Amino acid sequence: MHAEAAMANEHHHHVNTDATDVFGFWLYIMTDCILFACLFATFIVLNTTGMGAPTLKGHLNLHDILIESLFLLASNFTFCLAVLNLNKKNLLRLQGWLFVSFLLGASFVYMEVTEFFHLAKEGFRWDLNGQVSSFFTLVGTHGFHVSIGLLWILLMIVQMPILKMNDVAKRRMTYLGLFWNFLDIVWIFVFTIVYLTGAI
Amino acid sequence: MAHHEHESQPDFGTGQKKLSVYTFGFIGCIVLTVFAFWVVLEGHFTKAQAFSLIYTAAIIQFIIQLVCFLRLNAQTEQGRTNILTFVFTGVILVTIILGSLWIMWNLNYFMMN
Description:
The structure holds two protein chains of two kinds.
Chain A: H1 2-7, H2 11-47, H3 62-87, H4 91-121, H5 130-163, H6 167-199
Chain B: H1 19-42, H2 47-69, H3 77-112
């Protein structure tokens, strides 16, 4: 915050430091990719060696997973609409689209948690063996990231009128946009590798 | 890249925001997601066919997301640096995942034979 105040006088400098900050956040996203890569590797390794353990196939409801995926996709799109309205300086629409993104993301998390409870009730419990644990760790870590993103969206809705949609607000929206989009990309691989491959 | 817009809309190497690009990406992703689920739910395909179809759909969707939403591009210096780090992450990612599978496959092979 201090660095920002010092640089605020010189707009040119300000844009440059902002670009460096966004690059730093991009690097964080890249390290998060490596976290997910480890979890995916664990899941794939453990998933093929289960002996006599319950498989995911019998407990899956693919229709629910499809609806979940569409919720997350739509949430990503409405967030982009929010960013477009930030550039047009339209506060009400910006907050509106952010709120729609929040609702869609919250529906995703709600469906995922419901599914987890449903799986646990049917005997696909996380403490059974390594295979089930790796499933819950991978999908759960993604869900946890989405929950943090939801909290962040709420914070942005509150911050927007206070920051008056200035450059700081734009930079923070860029962070959140990268984060939200990244989670959507990870989800493509979760539903393909975990759910669809598990159901074939 | 419209350079006169750069003052009012800093793009941080993430490209200019355009509704048309987002809409195209959104529709493309929906079609590919529904297609992948349809392949599995339909059940008419053999295992090998279903595998190749869903993984092809996933890779195309991944590329659409990168281009349309993350707006990876090589038009600015920042954009090129982003791509460079992205490729580096890809190398590590492939090493971790393929390396783990390779080691486990080897262990399995030598224990069973």
